[in-house]
Design brief:
heterodimer; A: Sufe protein. Chain: A; 3-stranded antiparallel sheet; 5 helices; 3 strands; B: alpha/beta; Aspartate Aminotransferase, domain 1; 2 domains; 7-stranded mixed sheet; 4-stranded antiparallel sheet; 12 helices
Chain lengths: ~130, ~400
């Protein structure tokens, strides 16, 4: 299948690859997908006390479109508040990367990863408050 | 010699045409354009003569006694359809049971499925982790209703070579017709229809440096005489086995491709195996966690096949990273069905690993320089993608990936 230029660009030069300390209370980690399905994304956000995403990192096992979707997601997350981050939809990713129908699940996975990272961060925060 | 991109390492899919083949074909497009079935003039006679010469060239390569045992078709899918449907229909009164394996090409498997709908019973044998069917399993599956056994000479994904001679002998003993889809193996490994007791064999020109759109079905005419019900009706070409005007230039090229292989296949197999081994050794020297899918070793795998899983790196992602190299993958993402390779599944390769498999198919025109370039590129990109892989990081931290409850999606 032919990839869009944007997918190729992200896959060849992925942004924000890396690992944040998952024990850090200000870090939220989302790990979604399954090796048996051929794609796993781990997306992490570091959130300031003001609720703004200061940093975002990812690692992805998957095809070029999955790598590009998560790379793009980390770019979009930085500088956003958690509320703004939660509004990112997979359809936005599909549009930006020109993903073909067979690759839409990659964008869905990226949206799930964002939500899962936010949820993990919120859980940690409420655990901190209640302790 | 400088490298030309992209580098072709997908010779199981198709092979480039040998220039010697093209040269032989060219006059048959222009001055010798006749219809081989035209009996009344020189144009037809010339074409018929060329077709019969090609028939001999094909027969020689596979060790057939007589050229008339070669039925020209449009390719191996048609040959497989004709063999299975033709035998099933003709011998229906004798029995309704067919034995095959789970790793056959879709042209065999889907034909079997259609026959099942028509009341035939089909046994699909397992092949085990080696990707080689066991003779005992074939024997055990036979019943007094068995009319046909169809087992491929070599598999198109993992290149494993099946025990054709032994199965042929068993079929002779039991009076069962034996068909082999020899597409991937002929001209790359030992193959002789007489020595191996083969009654029907499908081959195609484009996997052996000939043109696309032409193939053959070998149909044994003595000891035993195998009969088929034709699947295409019309002018009664090919002794009534396959109507349709013959593709004369294609057949001429097919013949030439067979002639070249008859002379050169052993040297070529040695050369290709040495390049394939060079590629494997280089990859395995620098990369950990690589797994060969299927049996390894001379006589057990085609000399041109390397099917390897690079753990923690998804196959399509890797193919995109090495886009200067044409290979294929058993990853789900490369298929429209999003299902990983059924062949790897039949070998018991876990889905995790199936997603990371890459098939390298080397060939006559693969150079050492290309092998070295591909090895370097794959090593670099696998390392890069492992740095990008959460699974590789977790595995290195000692996390057992099997302990994690993954949400299947």
């Amino acid at each position: 299948m032919a990839y869009s230029e944007k997918v190729i660009e992200h896959a060849e030069n992925p942004r924000n690859v890396g690992t944040l300390d998952k024990e850090d209370p200000n870090v939220g980690t989302g790990l979604v997908g399954a090796p048996a399905c051929g794609d796993v994304m781990r997306l992490q956000i570091k959130v300031s006390d003001a609720g703004v995403i200061e940093d975002a990192k990812f690692k992805t096992f998957g095809c070029g479109s999955a790598i590009a979707s998560s790379s793009l997601a980390t770019e979009w997350l930085k500088g956003r508040t958690l509320e703004e981050a939660a509004t990112i939809r997979n359809t936005d990713i599909v549009k930006e990367l020109n993903l073909p129908p067979v690759k839409i699940h990659c964008s869905v996975l990226a949206e799930d990863a964002i939500k899962s990272a936010i949820e993990d961060f919120r859980k940690k925060q409420s655990a901190k408050r209640s302790s | 010699m400088s490298l030309k991109f992209p580098i072709y390492m997908d010779n199981h899919s198709t092979s480039p045409m040998d220039p010697r083949v093209l040269e032989t074909m060219l006059p048959y497009f222009t001055e010798h354009f006749g219809n081989a079935a035209s009996r009344s003039h020189k144009f037809g006679w010339t074409a018929e003569e060329a077709v019969n010469y090609a028939r001999e060239q094909v027969a020689t390569l596979i060790g057939a006694d007589r050229p008339e045992e070669i039925v020209f078709t449009s390719g191996a899918s048609e040959s497989n359809n004709l063999a299975l449907k033709g035998v099933a229909e003709f011998y229906r009164d004798k029995g309704n049971h067919i034995i095959t394996t789970k790793i056959e090409h879709k042209a065999v498997l889907d034909t079997c499925k259609r026959l099942e709908k028509q009341g035939f019973e089909v046994t699909y044998l397992d092949v085990g982790v080696e990707g080689i069917v066991s003779l005992d399993d074939v024997r055990a599956a036979m019943t007094d209703k068995t009319i046909l056994v169809s087992v491929m000479l070599a598999n198109n994904e993992v290149g494993t070579i099946q025990p054709i001679g032994a199965i042929g002998a068993l079929c002779k003993e039991r009076g069962v017709i034996f068909h082999t889809d020899a597409v991937q193996g002929v001209g790359k490994t030992e193959f002789n229809v007489n020595a191996m007791g083969v009654d029907l064999a499908s081959i195609t020109a484009h996997k052996m440096y000939g043109p696309k759109g032409v193939g053959a079905l070998y149909v044994r005419r003595a000891r035993p005489r195998v009969r088929l019900t034709a699947q295409i009706d019309g002018g009664g070409h090919e002794r009534g086995n396959r109507s349709g005007t013959l593709n004369v230039p294609g057949i001429v090229g097919f013949g030439k491709a067979c002639e070249i292989l008859t002379k050169e296949w052993r040297d070529e197999a040695r050369y290709v195996a040495s390049q394939r081994d060079r590629l494997k050794e280089k990859l395995f020297a620098e990369l950990d966690e690589c797994h060969i899918n299927g049996a390894w070793g001379e006589g057990r795998r085609l000399p041109n096949n390397l099917n390897v899983s690079f753990s923690y790196v998804e196959g399509e992602g890797l193919m995109m990273a090495i886009k200067d190299v044409a290979v294929s993958s058993g990853s789900a993402c490369t298929s429209s069905s999003l299902e990983p390779s059924y062949v790897l599944r039949a070998l018991g390769v876990e889905e995790e690993l199936a997603h990371t498999s890459i098939r390298f198919g080397l060939g006559r025109f693969t150079t050492e320089e290309e092998v070295d370039f591909v090895a370097r590129l794959v090593i670099d990109k696998v390392k890069k993608l492992r740095d990008l892989s959460p699974l590789y990081e977790m595995a290195k931290e000692g996390v057992n990936l099997k302990d994690i409850v993954w949400a299947a999606h």
